[in-house]
Amino acid sequence: MASPALISETGPWKDLKDHVEDIKKTHLRELMADMGRCQSMTVEFDDMLLDYSRQRATLDTIDKLFKLAEAACLKQKISRMFNGDKINSTENRSVLHVALRAPRDAVICSDRKNVVPDVWGVLDQIKEFSERVRNGSWVGATGKQLKNVIAIGIGGSFLGPLFVHTAFQTDAEAGEYAKGRQLRFLANVDPIDVAKNITGLDPETTLVVVVSKTFTTAETMLNARTLREWIIAALGPSAVAKHMVAVSTNLPLVEKFGIDPNNAFAFWDWVGGRYSVCSAVGVLPLSLQYGFEVVEKFLKGAQSIDQHFYTAPFEKNIPVLLGLLSVWNVSFLGYPARAILPYSQALEKFAPHIQQVSMESNGKGVSIDGLPLPFETGEIDFGEPGTNGQHSFYQLIHQGRAIPCDFIGVIRSQQPVYLKGEMVNNHDELMSNFFAQPDALAYGKTPEQLQKESVPEHLVPHKTFTGNRPSLSLLLPSLNAYNIGQLLAIYEHRVAVQGFIWGINSFDQWGVELGKSLATQVRKQLHASRFKGESVEGFNFSTTTMLTKYLKATSD
Ligand code: F6P
Q1: HSE (CB half, 13 Å, CA atoms) of 146?
Q2: Which residues span the domain enclosing 404?
Q3: 489 plus 523 within the same structural domain
Q4: Which residues pair with 246 in a beta bridge?
Q5: Disulfide: which of 167, 216, 270, 387 matches 96 by Cβ 3.0-4.6 Å?
Q6: CA 159 to ligand 1: nearest atom
Q7: How many of the other CB atoms lie within 10 Å of CB of 439?
Q8: Pairwise CA distance, residues 216 & 226, whole Å
Q9: 374: left (phi over 0), alpha (psi -120 to 50) or beta
Q10: CATH for 222
């Protein structure tokens, strides 16, 4: 019998739909009282602990989710990804970010060619180049050492590297290697971002890395031209060869731009932009700042999760469990959002990165075969480090809308601070909140409890917490380069699992194109009006009015 075209037409999907009614009758307080259930809902891997006992799920739910995984051919889809099959069918591409962190002797093929030697060819090139810049054997046009790097790129050519840089910055080992050096990121085309990036930097001691998979992204190319002018104005045209390098899959365009192809670091079309942090996109700027050895540890961390994801049985497989639970929350319990709450300031840029990984991957309206989906995919991801978020949006999470939360905690702080005589130190204080919040969400506080505390009757409704709000907790042993790589890979694979279950293509992003092409029309109009005096035409009333006002105000 042919398998149904949509996962929602399968028996396991329908079974889970019916099962929702049972779960709705059960409060998390009751679920948490079942010790056997709670014990079964923890997984340990490589000294990290996942606890998903505060999900609105029973062991039966998990079993049903495994049946859904089977109906969606999850295992086969994971294998197809690792085997280099062209699972990104709308772009006819393999999806092989796992090859970016594979050991040197691994064999991973795309188009029947082992891609691992090419990966290591570029890693070796980065190692050599970054060491030369760092030890001063590659210098700027005036012979000065290049201590500062501005990485120009946007989206996947920016968010991942920024997340990792922010996390490395406060790590003792990585931080030590970065002494005396600066790494900045120029993403936005807003002139304010240009100004912020070049302020206080001298072109003589600055290396600009232009990062763009396509080398056509409007914002990145304009920023690259602007910084090329900045360098030329200070040091003359020949300085570009020493002060600008590129990371791209499009080496002909790199050369056309005026960057020596010998100073270009390649990657490949089988690396999606948002999955590219382990390619030269992240590895080059991070190696310039922290040294290649530190970045290699990060790659090894990601690789350890790739291995785990590929081989661990689903009951012990962290990305698989996380992905299935997200599908459960979105498609069955109907939660539209997910909060990513790291109790670590070093992970400040983690949620913004995962926003792109998750929302650009899974925010789709049709199946991989182009059929309209009768259910929603993806979720709205947002987040902030705790405890800052607690003083911002947690009110809504506790008493307003229910939003499944990911609590991410770290056992050993990157920067422990101990105060003699205090009841707890800073890290204990942070972690006290990490441990407390999931229970506040799950258990809540009943009117009866409040009455026992003699809370005035008129305040009881305001102080009541309904509870029954799901979360999961991921406890990492520490936050070094290795663990940061692990965290990245866990979330990358979780997103893939969700897409595999929903039956969508998580690796294309056609939804970003329409806005780009409309901006091109506007750009042409601005140019034609400003420089040729042409009137605004071809837009609706609203856009015409705004464009006219903008042009008038900026024409003097
Ligand atoms: O507009 C979205 C996007 O295409 C992302 O998918 C990508 O990460 C980003 O733009 C940057 O693209 P590029 O690396 O080609 O400049």
Answers
A1: 28
A2: 7-72+312-414+429-505
A3: no
A4: 210, 264
A5: 270
A6: 8
A7: 14
A8: 15
A9: alpha
A10: 3.40.50.10490
Strand order in the sheet with 148-152: 182-186, 148-152, 206-211, 244-248, 264-266
Whole-number Å distance between alpha carbons of 450 and 218: 57
Beta carbons of 141 and 236 less than 8 angstroms apart? yes
Q: Is residue 291 part of a domain?
A: yes
Same domain, 326 and 261: no
Q: What is the DSSP string of 257-314?
A: HT--GGGEEE--TTS-GGG-TTSHHHHHHHHHHH-HHHHHHHHHHHHHHHHHHHHS-G
Top mutation candidate among 152, 154, 361 for ligand 1, by most atoms within 8 Å of CB: 154
159 Cα–ligand 1 center, Å: 11
Which amino acid, 295? V
Q: From start to end of 354-495, where are the E strands? A: 380-382, 405-412, 471-478
* Alpha-carbon gap, residue 508 to 367, rounded angstroms: 12
| Grouped pLDDT means (10 residues each) for the chain, 556 residues | 82 98 97 98 98 98 98 98 98 98 98 97 98 98 98 98 98 93 98 98 98 97 98 98 97 96 96 98 98 98 98 98 98 98 98 98 97 97 97 97 98 88 88 98 98 98 98 98 98 98 98 95 96 96 97 89
Q: What's the Cα-to-Cα distance from 69 to each of 12, 48, 118, 548, rounded to whole Å? A: 9, 24, 34, 54
**51 and 135, same domain (yes or no):** no
pLDDT of residue 421: 79
Tell me the pairing of strands 405-412 and 42-45. unpaired
Tell me the best of 157, 276, 279 to mutate to test the pocket of ligand 1, counting ligand atoms within 8 Å of each CB and taking the most. 157
Residue 418 has a pLDDT of: 79
Q: How far is the CA of 273 from the centre of ligand 1 (A)?
A: 6
Which residues make beta-bridge pairs with 150? 184, 208
Predicted ipTM?
0.98
Whether residue 81 is contained in a domain is answered as no
Q: What angle do CA 305, 210, 224 make, to 5 degrees?
A: 150
152 and 40 within one domain? no
Tokens matching residue 232 = 């030329």
What per-residue string of b and e applies to 289-328 under the rule 16 or more CB within 10 Å gives b?
Answer: bbbbebbbbbbebbbbbbebbbebebeebbbbbbbbbbbb
* Position 424 in a domain: no
* Closest atom, ligand 1, to C-alpha of 157: 14
Check if 156 has its Cβ closer than 6 Å to any atom of ligand 1.
yes
Q: Could you tell me if 465 and 444 are in contact, meaning their C-beta atoms sit under 8 angstroms apart?
A: yes
Q: Alpha-carbon distance 490 to 322, whole Å?
A: 9
Residue nearest to atom 16 of ligand 1 (CA): 212
Number of structural domains in the chain: 3
Number of other CB atoms surrounding residue 225 within 10 Å: 13
